[in-house]
Write a structure and sequence with these properties.
With 291 residues, this protein is an alpha/beta fold. It is built from 15 helices and six strands. Strands 4-3-5-2-1-6 form a six-stranded mixed beta sheet, sandwiched between helices. A hairpin with a 5-residue loop joins strand 1 and strand 2. The protein is elongated and about 60 Å long. It starts with a helix and ends with a strand. 43% of the residues are buried.
């Protein structure tokens, strides 16, 4: 599940086609207000490989038409000195606690076996909170499979915006995003970690299937792959998707008051489903069309 989350969070944006058309849809939407103002929405999977570039024309058209790039986080915050230490400190257990004291014996046994199989020492990792260890192990599995955050759409468009002198903003802060995981109940964190280690060997196949659905602009398939598991974890679904989408909605609506379009790039999972941004904008009276 965490694999799909962060392919959203993570959790979760991606084409081999070079033009947008009705026959070749992309994960880009054009939202138009009753007054004619435009905001573009682009779905992102936060890790990619070099063979996904160049992107489909719809992405470049949305970016070029906009003078403001809005992402989940301002990438400048992620790249700032001290950010890694901030993330690490948020993801560490309190002094005196370790995972073998907080997890069920059978869980720590499985986790230890998986970590050892990856060639990692388990003892220092026992100081991580379950959610942080799950994300850390999953990130390593993604990298081993050839996917890199430095090649993800978020970083790609951030770099282009900075080079082109465009303004960049974030929908939320890093601290808030981390709090979505850190505030999960202990049992949910344990399930998250356990499922992660059980499925590490499936990472490449699962992620490739998600990317293929993204490439073809297949909304239903992305929705099924990302959201089906979350339906069995209502609190996780609420904290990682639903609450964030509803918090972002008024921020995105305010963009329609600007004289020029903005390009909003968020994880693909935030755009699909009945609680996704596309559906939420349509419910508020905006015309939203897939490009």
């Amino acid at each position: 599940m965490i694999r799909r989350l962060a392919a959203l969070v993570s959790a979760l944006a991606l084409t081999l086609t070079t033009a947008s058309s009705a026959a070749s849809p992309t994960f880009v939407w054009k939202a138009t207000s009753p007054s004619g103002a435009v905001v573009y929405l682009g779905g992102s999977v936060h890790l990619l490989s070099a063979d996904f570039y160049p992107l489909p024309a719809a992405y470049d058209e949305a970016f070029n038409a906009s003078d403001l790039l809005v992402e989940e986080l301002d990438m400048g915050e992620m790249l700032a000195p001290g950010t890694q230490m901030q993330m690490l400190s948020k993801g560490m257990l309190p002094p005196g606690q370790t995972l073998d004291r907080t997890l069920k014996p059978e869980t720590i046994s499985e986790v230890s076996a998986a970590v050892t199989a990856m060639g990692l020492p388990i003892e220092p990792l026992k100081m991580f909170k379950p959610w942080m260890l799950a994300i850390t192990l999953q990130s390593m599995a993604w990298q081993k499979a050839g996917f890199d955050a430095n090649l993800g759409l978020d970083k790609h468009f951030y770099d282009r915006a900075k080079q082109g002198g465009k303004t960049v903003k974030g929908l939320e802060t890093l601290d808030y995003q981390l709090s979505r995981f850190d505030g999960l109940p202990a049992d949910a964190q344990e399930r998250m970690l356990l499922e992660t280690v059980r499925e590490l060997d499936k990472t490449k196949d699962e992620f490739t299937r998600l990317v293929s659905a993204w490439k073809s602009g297949n909304i239903a398939d992305v929705e099924k792959q990302v959201l089906d598991d979350l339906k069995n974890e209502p609190e996780m679904n609420a904290r990682l998707l639903v609450e964030r989408n509803r918090t972002w909605l008024p921020i995105i609506e305010a963009l329609f008051a600007r004289p020029k379009p903005a390009f909003v790039v968020v994880g693909a999972a935030h755009l699909v489903g009945s609680d996704g941004l596309v559906a939420l904008l349509r419910s508020k009276g905006y015309t939203v069309t897939q490009q």
